[in-house]
Every structure is written in structure tokens, then in C-alpha cells.
Amino acid sequence: MPSHTHARLPAESAMRSVPIPVGLPTHWYNFLPDLPAPLPPVRDEGTPSAAEIALQVRPRALLDQDRPTERRVPIPEAVADLLRRIGRPTPLHRARALEAELGTRAHIYLKREDVLPTGSFKLNSAVVQAYYAAQEGRTTLVTETGAGQWGMSVALAASLAGLDSEIFMVRCSLDQKPYRRHYMELLGATVRASPSPDTSFGRELLARSPGHPGSLGTAISDAIGHALDLGPKAAYLSGSGVPHVYLHQTLLGLEVQAQLAALDEPIGVPGRGDHLIACSGGGSNLCGLVGPFLGSLGDGSRDLRLLAAESSAAPRLTAGRYRYGRSDLAGLTPEVLGYSMGPDFVPPPVHTAGLRNHHSSAAVSLLRHEGLLDAVAVEEKRALEAGRLVLRTEGLLFAPETTHALAAAVEVAVRADETAADPVIVVLASGSGLLDLQSYATVLSGGAR
Ligand SMILES: Cc1ncc(COP(=O)(O)O)c(C=O)c1O
Prior knowledge:
One of its GO terms (molecular function) is tryptophan synthase activity. By secondary structure, the protein is an alpha/beta fold. 40% of the residues lie in helices and 16% in strands. It has helices at 13-16, 50-57, 60-64, 77-85, 96-102, 123-135, 149-161, 171-176, 178-186, 200-208, 216-230, 243-249, 251-262, 284-290, 294-298, 316-319, 362-369, 380-394, 400-416, 437-444, and strands at residues 27-29, 72-74, 92-94, 107-112, 140-145, 164-170, 190-194, 234-236, 275-279, 305-311, 321-325, 336-340, 373-378, 424-429.
């Protein structure tokens, strides 16, 4: 990566950064039929089965959205109102100063999810899930959170819908990011560290391993167990990894398509090396971005590379095995076929909690297995250096998860100089880093965690 030289903004940059006037999509896009092969069947042999548990804890409308019957799923008007209220559509920002700094021919676009009120794209699904939970008479939303971005979104969505929320946050992230807890509590949420002494799963784990740092696997187990204990008034919500969340997030790719069209910037031009890039934890910002493009890749009308940036602390897509496994540790979710570090893998407590999953979702893994998705594992320091470069050039500070995608994009953009074409690179800028400054400071100054 080149050293920073205080690039000046090119003259027309300000003009190109004006939000592009596209409307909110009227539908979500069901990309499951566009996958290169059907999703492999899940294994679900527990007693009770994960499907039976899901029927108890998940809103029915969301389970139906896991298998939509239509390609274009209409967004109810009340949900569209909510989505406009939280600031959708979000801007597509041409990062011209970054391009100038890198000296690249590539056109780099950032889809700016950091501008949403909770600072991340997670709110796109949280408001929808809260809406359906309220419609079905549930009064308490229960969930897990890694970095706290999903938890903040659920806490806000619950408050907007007049519901309570209870959130299990991975213990090491709670220690690293106390401000996310303050935000959730300000909204009235109950926040607990995971593993939690308040659930039977958490108590057992803490007895065996008292200093356990927690992981998404422990937090999912705590949250589902707690939702079961609360009974029918509770709804358990997922922030990623399941098809209905991906469906809600297809707004990302649909808006990008409309915005690039409004800019007269074609994407997927054959032979040019155009890219869609997103970080990948549970896969929701990645699938939301690429899902609406899969049809045009399948029929050959676009030539587009899809790139997932994962954390080198949990390198499932680049170093994991394709095998059956669960996203939780207590056996409350089905086993899905995906790239995995194995059930006993506890990712080191990096600052990028949203990418600390031990098992990849079925959809992301299928794309990878069928050769449609490239992947790169990015080391935390390199990611945050890319984040610092984007702050210094574009004036935008992104979340540690996002910076993994930024580092991948910088590499692609620098490589583009060796070719004759000017590729278009769209990066899903999944969240703001304003509450992650401690992580930037700690990692970039080499201090203690
Ligand atoms: C800002 C941000 N980006 C990305 C992710 C990764 O999630 P997913 O892979 O589901 O998009 C997270 C997860 O917490 C996040 O907080």
C-alpha cells in the first residue's frame, strides 16, 4: 500500500459525491434460484429439532421468507416507510481521493451503510424483523451480537416498534466496546455478556471454562436458550447467516444497480475485471450486495468478480474445510454444509468481532464451492491500515469489519494498474468506525488489547 501523501480531492469529486436520487426498491430480491446449485439440505437430528425450536422462537413471517415463492418479494408499505425513515437509500460514494492516492485506474465506489442511525447496514433487517415480530404479538426481541452493531440495530428497531429487547454480547467485545452497550441500554435494552451465567448453556460453559472470551457461537446459544425460556412472548432474531436476513439485505445490491445506472457507469463489462467486494462474517452484507447480480452472472450478461474479505483470525473460506456444522455451540441450530474451522475453534479475540465466526453460511459457502466467489483472509492490522488510509483520503471512518473489504479493494485497485482497462470496484462499506476508535488506536499503535 502506498504511503499517505495527503492527496488533494480532485476538483469534480465533491460533485460526484452528491447522493444519487434513486428511490427505495419496491421489492426485495429472492436470489436463491440464481445460486449455481440448490442449497444443500440441512441436517437436523436433535430432540427437539432445530426446525421445531425455530417454529417456537422465530416469527412465522420470517420463516416463510426463508423460502419465498416469488422472485421479487414486495416490501409492505409500512416497512418501506420504516426503511425511508432510517435513511434508505444510502449514498454510493465515488472514492476519487483514494483512487488518486493509490494512483489507480479503477473507479472505486463505496456503498455507505455507515450513514444509517446505528452506524451499520444491520438496521436494514432489524427494522423488518421487529415489524413482523410485533405484528405477530411478540413483545420481547432476543438476540446475540458480536461487535455490537447488530445488537444496537435490534435495540433501536425494538424501541421504534414499542418492544423490549434482550441482547447477549460476546464477552471480549463487550469489554472492548463499552459504548455500544451504553447505546443499547439507552434504548432500554437488557445487555448481558456471553457466555452468560443467566442461561443453562452459559452456566455449564463457564463452569468448564471460567475465562471464556465468548464467540458468536456462544452468544447464539445463550440467546436461543433464553428465548425458549421466555416462551411465546419472545422472538429470537438473527442478524446474519439465514436466508430471510439475506433477502432483506438485497436492498444493498438493488440500490447499487440503480445508482450505477443513474451514473451511467456500467458494471460487469466483459474482460475489465469489475469487482463486488464485501467483508464476510455471517455473510449478510456480502449476499445482500451480490445476490441481485447473480442472475446476470449465471446468464453470462455480466462479467463480474465477487470477492469476500474474511478475517485471518477465522479464515473459513480460505483455510476451512467444507463440512457440516452449526453456527451455535449448544446444538439449537441445524447443521449446514459450509466452510468451517470446526466446532471447537475459538477465534482469537481480535477487534473485528463481526468476522469471528467459526462456520460459514450455506449460501456463501456454496458460492465459494462452485467457484463463483473469491476470498481473501486479511490480517487485522493490514485492515485497519486500509481504514486509516480511507479516513485520511476520503474523510470517512469505517468499522474494523468494513476495513477488511477496504484492504481487499486497495489490493485489487493497485493490481488494476497492470491492465489496460479501468475496472469498476464496488465495496460494501458496511459500518461506521466512530465507536471503534479504541480498536484503531490499540492495533495501529501496537498497544495491549
Ligand atoms: C459493520 C459490520 N460489517 C460486517 C459485519 C459482518 O456481518 P455479515 O457477514 O453478516 O455481513 C458485521 C457483523 O457484525 C458488522 O458489524
